[in-house]
Amino acid sequence: MQRSVLLHRLVLFRSLLDLPVYHKLSLLLADDGTDTARFTDYYTEFVAELYYYTDNLSEYIRKTVYESDNLHIRLVAEKKPVSPHIASALEEELRILEQISCITPGDITPPNTGFLPQWNTTEIDLVRGYAEHAANIHQVGYGIYAAHHMFIVKDDHILPLRYPDPQALADLYGYEAEREKVIANTLALLEGKPAVNVLLYGDAGTGKSSTVKAIVNEYSSKGLRLIEVKKSQLESIPSVIEELASNPLKFILFIDDLSFSEGDGDFTALKAILEGSAAARTKNIVIYATSNRRHLVRVTFSSRAGDDIHVNETLEETISLSARFGLVITFQKPDRDAYLAIVSSLAKEHGLTIPQDVLFKGAEMHALRSSGRTPRAAKHYIELLAANTIQ
């Protein structure tokens, strides 16, 4: 059977044909090579697409097969039975893709074509490899959740962040006790134990957002994913939760810099979610939010003296939103010793050999010019020193 026909026999993995590499490979394999110019165009267009990702066809096929969102992998993820017909189709299609992955330039290039760029191939066992992948679906995921680990919500669609913040736990200094509480709750989520929604509250620049992102980077290989939801998108959270509820991975819905003004309609949306609507009761999703406001809502003197006959009850409901988080962790500005300890650790990390008294004096002056003693101020100061921007 011609190789070009093999690709078109795909059913479970049919969506792969929409990818440019597969589409151009299909055109190339269907060409008989009698028209050298046409063949050369098909050939170079295919290689150009492949080179965008890799120069190894086998590895590209393996990666895209493992990341495929198809009926079989969804059944496995939802722990539903796989019919004999689907199991048979799966094995046959994996054999087809394995055969395609072994194609070398020499297998298809007519003689006397002249120089053409080459690609590599590797012997792979897609049937066994895919079975192992499916067995670890709760850690590796499928579809976009296999290819990426941080996402945003845009127009009610979950989209991957192609260049996520690479913040690592090892690069964060100070706040170890606070960070350990967040890590413990996250590990409980990953282990299928009860986990709660978390509010990270405190001064700006203390590393609240960095903590969440670093934790996701640290445990993404264990099946942890982050979806950032903006405050204006809170009403989308129920639909996001519904989409993710049957996914075998674990998700943090991350709301950064959360705060409300009085009468803000988004307040009610978040309150309903935190109070545990039917859509929110899933074991694979938690909400992590950061805020500079302890009670999340800006309360004015006029609201305290308002004309509501039950003003105390109204005020209490407004300022108690934070209590609906299962865990509230405070990140306060460090004192002088803690701040300088962070400065010292960062200086060591960057290989700076500045006398300590000079380093600390400059750090204190930088804090005065910035927003005070914070990990962010320490980081900026050390980066400026490392870049020789300041003396």
Automatic annotation (TrEMBL):
SMART domains: AAA. InterPro entries: AAA+_ATPase, DUF815, P-loop_NTPase. Transmembrane segments: none annotated. Gene3D superfamilies: P-loop containing nucleotide triphosphate hydrolases. It comes from the Archaea. This is AAA+ ATPase domain-containing protein. Residues 194-316 form the AAA+ ATPase domain.
